[in-house]
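Why predict the complex rather than its parts? Because the way molecules touch one another can change local conformation, and only a joint prediction can capture that. The input here totals 964 residues.
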Amino acid sequence: MCENHNNKVNCFVHVDSGLQPVPLKCIVNGEQVCTYIDPTMTLLNFLRRELKLFGSKEGCGEGECGACTIIMNRVAVNSCIVLALEAMDANIITVEGLNISGKLSILQREFISHDALQCGFCTPGMLMSARALLDRNPDPDEKEIKEAIAGNFCRCTGYFPIITAITSAAKLEREEMKNE
Amino acid sequence: MSDKQYRHIGKSSDRVESLEKVTGQAIYTVDLELPGMLYAKCLYSPYARAEIISLDVSEAKALPGVKAVLIGDDIPYLVGIYMVDKRILARGIVRYQGEPVVAVAAIDEKTAELAVSKIKIEYKKLPSIQTLDEALEGKILVHEDINELEYCKGVFFPQPDSNIASWNKMIKGDIKKGFAEADIIVENVLTLPAVAHVPMETHVAIAQADTYTNKIKIWSSTQSPFAIRKLLAKALNISTADVQVIVPYVGGGFGGKAGIHLEPLVAVLSRACNGRPVKLIATREEEFNQLPTRAGMRGHVKTGVKRDGKITATEIYYDWDSGAYADYGVNVGKSATYSGAGAYEIPNIELHSRTLYTNKVFSTAYRGFGHLETHWVMERQMDMVAQKLGMDPYEFRMKNILRSGCHTISGELINENSGRPEDCLAAVAKEIGWTGYQSEEERKSNSKAGKLRGKGLACLQKAPAMPPHTSTSAIMQMDDDGNIRIMLGVVDIGQGANTVMAQIAAEVLDMPMEKVKVMWDNDTDHHPYDWSTVASKYTFMGGNAVKKCALNMLQQMKEMAAQVLRTSVEDLTHGDEYIYHIHHKQRRIKYKDLALGYAYESGNGIGGPLIAKGTYMANGLTFLDPVTGQGLPALDWTFGAHGVELEVDIETGDIEIIKIASAFDIGQAINRKLVEGQIMGGVLQGIGSAIIEGYKFSPEGRLMNPSFTDNKIPTAKDIPMEIVPILIENPQPDGPFGARGIGEHPMISVPSAIGNALYDALGINFYKLPLSPENVALAIERQQ
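Output of the joint prediction:
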């Protein structure tokens, strides 16, 4: 029976961690976020349940499949095994932040034109691993691309179109840089 | 063959939903949150077989935030697609480790988890059926009540007082005579383990059960909304009209989301919670050990051949380790009868396929529907027979391959338009430079730095496994601005059905793709009927329905235009969004001016809004004879072949695939890019089955590898150096634009081709999957 209520049918007290909420301040897709969270909450659940950013997916909850990959302080991480409070003062980018200018990024466009997705469930995580790679290495070779997405499972595509899309996006991004 | 005559068919259009998928806007069932939604969790059996002695859920029920706790006794319903053998929650006895026993609905997942931890169950552990031989021996019955189970009669054949859920047979000719005629008889036993589907989105279902009426609304990550509607209504004894199934984007299916799974459980939970929506998300572990898998299998094959390489007789026993419930497993077993001997002409055959109950996680449909398994047996056997004959396995296959004029083992006449497996085999052999097995000397000279190279071939075939009277339908409307909206019963789970259907509609109507929209999400209350998104049958069946639907719309437009243009329908043609006179082309009218009916300048109106329909029903097919298995089960055969070149490390047993060429006679590619995507994805999934994946059970029947740590799928680092998709296009006259299905086929026979290449590399025949580094290295060591 709930301590605060006598009517168990209508009791809405969440049995959470029982710990005091902690403050969290970070930047998500360029916007400042400031809130209180359960300290046991994962970063993925924070993004999905609190911020309602449903692009990042949970495929295993154990950091094995990469569906939850986001970029935190320029590094691709599995947000299902990162605590939200670890993101204090961090700069976070999710799939929703890839087309921040309101139009599709080159990477997203290349995923479409090379059909680097089928069911689409791994796509947000795959895009974020690719984005982090291209941010630190604008001219990756095939081995480096494979390495960067080796933690992102895809059951549909056989990875070939994904590798082609990333290779092509890298080339186009370099050309764009040159033109700017 | 040439796609030049078409505007859209054969072109590599981008998939229609890709924008949503690259921006994170695509909403899957797992993303849905509904007002008042509750979350469910289950308690699972820790034992493969045990009696439930006592069950105490009082503490769980008392926990604040818990809204319902259900046990098997609360839910007297049985479900099952072909054998009605499964309870929504176990009652009295548990039949596999992972079987749900208690379900909780609470205000959030953590509360539900906590409640589950407070449930007390006392079990009496019982001896269980863990091997095929134990199952066949039948000392213990997985289903004591097998004689009383309701089942689909005349199609499946459960054997009384046994663990045989169905024994299906194929008998043609006289094998005694056939074996007597043979110069050589080759007999082998090959096996493969159960394998998980691994959709990236696990099974998820939400139900909202109206407490005032029988109405139930389901949101599910499923391939089969119409099957769920029918089976759920049957299980709960309500009307089909009471059930509405909505399917948002689906994060992969591969057969595992065909049929009915979590939906009945969330439905009864919602009823128990006064109609609040209840959501159940399978964890990855539950996806492995609670939800169904692909069955393990053992194939015992005996082939008789003449010296010249002509097959005279084949006898096969396929025994399926199908787990605790029949689900689709019995139908997998059934399709093994008419398709389980491969793409060859066999004059005398006896094929027995036994789907066996065992105390393991149960099996269901899996991309390939038994064909990867049966072809592992048959295509390895073809090589082993060739070895005994001292014949090139390519020549041996070509000698027996199905050609125009041949009959399949179920008695279907193959004609020149049925697809040509010989073209596929020839294409892949050429692509990998096949010149026959290496000699021992060649093998030695080709080996470098502890690595040996080999090449292998394998053929394949598959037709949709479906009832002979399967049907589908399409509805099409035109908006005021001339855009087309199409409603279909198919679920686009990533295979690209909606893109392909848009291409077909745009082709028939001769209009741009951008103006043709296929409606997501699939909703049984709003979309017309389709049987189920399975069997690689939708391009063929849905394509025909959409083609007819578009033609129906054209006809309606022409009838209206004939009045406006004061001519007859026969004198009208269409193109580029106009209906126009065949001679006076300037006498024309734009589609959009007919969309809502035609309005004259005076204000007069004729016609009405354009709504077209198209249906397609499989025709000419028959049930199989219950005794001999003879009959016409195949809507369309897609034949194919793989050629593999690989390198194997003799120290580590590691296989590196240098090249895999995969050819399929698909009649006509509707979307080349999507077809190639199916091939690359399917081939890699086949490589997973060949080299990496497989369930491991403890002797007591506990699944030892229910996680990605121990049950991996191929990653980007496991891909071959090269996959070469080859599209052979011998059109099928009754397919849409000549097309056949391709979804499942690419993974079939990949393990066989790799196994055959390993023989070429090592001179060792492998009989067991997976061909993991460990298994390969051990075999090499044994040989030395």
